[in-house]
Amino acid sequence: MPNVTFQSPLLHKNVTVYAIAGDTSTILSVADANKIAIPHDCRDGECGSCLIEVVTLSGKTMGSLLTEKEKAQLKSLGKITAEEIRLAEVEDVAPKYRLACQYIVRDQDILVKFSGEPGGA
Ligand code: FES
């Protein structure tokens, strides 16, 4: 079962929760279910307010599939390069920044960092 650890100035300490591998929950859904307030608005990859930084803690470093909306939004925020997109799509290498509403939990332990400011991972 993958562990998702949330780290933010909004939290007194890091919070680790267990996600269900193979589930199609997004990081934002997992956060909601555990009352962790990642800023968000559209929940559809279009506003960029749910920007997070993701660090792989254990398991293979792999990217959860980038949706077209996520790629476009991260590019417009200046948070992903064409090379990072290529590495994610061709070699399954996780990019540093993601959108919590688009990132589907995979079977790996990750650290999710967010500042608490919309779009300010
Ligand atoms: Fe708008 Fe995620 S909530 S992009």
From TrEMBL:
Source species, domain of life: Bacteria
Residue span(s) of domain 2Fe-2S ferredoxin-type: 2-118
CDD domains assigned to the protein according to its UniProt record, in alphabetical order: fer2
Signal sequence segment: none
Name this protein carries in UniProt: Ferredoxin
